[in-house]
Write a structure and sequence with these properties.
Length: about 280
């Protein structure tokens, strides 16, 4: 904090504390990254849970962008602006998994075009593994429900009929069940809205295990888990969601690239405990 003086109407002055100034541009910070693929145009990272993608209020440092600036130097696309160099899409802070970042403006434009088309042209592929409460009646299905900022809490997203709501479509398939208390789903995105999978699965009555925002109504269900599963869920301490598959057309060479990464140790441990 830094101290400053403020003058009141009567001429009296008071001392006030101001937060420290944050840098106008992100600084490079050396951090170990799990690089899945890299060339002159782009880089694919397996992002750990807990890592914010780009600087924002309250997260000015320690982000993926800070780490990429150290790893890639100046070779990141500038299209996203100084706070989001190379950022084409995002993952929630507590969601682990695959993310692609553009290193050139040409790559950024090509990748952004694919993400904007939401995979409808067959070039983009995104699949997530999600552990949810209970078991959906249908082994596979599609959730087509528009999303908008919640009118009750602007930090959250909600299914909405508002004219401001944006189309959102999630396809899911049950991969494994753990009795009738939980199940492992594979979700494929047709659109990519903020918190889309988390909100959609909660909307159909199957929120993610460990989701503090959209799964609160199921916190009491923890007592139905085995002791090992309760311990694994407590140790997970986040929503059980992992971006497992990312496929796209290379924006420069035209080659189709597809990457797949298994869930990290904390989600694997929960799966084993549920079994």
């Amino acid at each position: 904090m830094r101290e400053a003086r403020r003058k009141l109407k009567g001429g009296e002055t008071i001392d006030v504390d101001l937060p420290p100034a944050s840098p106008a541009e992100p600084e490079a910070e050396s951090t170990t990254l799990d690089v899945v693929y890299e060339d002159d145009d782009l880089i694919v990272i397996d992002k750990p849970a807990g890592l914010v993608v780009h600087p924002s209020t309250g997260h000015e440092r320690g982000t993926l962008v800070n780490a990429l600036l150290a790893h890639c130097g100046a070779s990141l696309s500038g299209i996203g602006g100084v706070k989001r160099p190379g950022v084409v899409h995002r993952l929630d802070k507590e969601t682990s998994g695959l993310i692609v970042v553009a290193k050139t403006d040409r790559a950024h434009k090509g990748l952004s075009e694919q993400f904007a088309s939401h995979g409808r042209d067959g070039r983009l592929e995104r699949e997530y593994l999600a552990i949810v409460w209970r078991v959906p009646e249908r082994r596979r299905g599609t959730i087509d429900a528009p999303l908008a900022r919640s009118s009750h809490n602007r930090q959250r997203i909600a299914v909405s009929k508002s004219t401001m709501a944006r189309s959102a479509v999630t396809h899911y398939e049950v991969e494994e069940t753990f009795g009738d208390i939980a199940s492992l789903l594979r979700c494929r995105l047709e659109t990519g809205r903020t918190h889309q999978i988390r909100v959609h699965l909660a909307h159909i009555g199957h929120p993610l295990l460990g989701d503090p925002a959209y799964g609160k109504g199921f916190f009491a269900s923890k007592r139905m888990l085995s002791e090992n599963a309760r311990i694994a869920l407590d140790e997970l301490d986040r929503q059980a969601l992992h971006a497992a598959v990312l496929g796209f057309e290379h924006p420069v060479t035209g080659e189709h690239l597809r990457f797949e990464r298994p869930p990290p140790a904390d989600i694997q441990a929960l799966i084993e405990a549920l079994r």
